[in-house]
Amino acid sequence: MASNSTSPTISTTSSSGNSEEDLQQKMDERRQKRMLSNRESARRSRMRKQKHLDDLMAQVNLLRNENNQILSRMHVTTQHYLSLEAENATLRAQIMELSARLQSLTEMLGYMQDLSGFCMDPVEQYPDPLLRPWDVPLMNQPITASADIFQY
Question: 120 pLDDT band (50/70/90 cuts)?
Answer without folding.
Answer: low
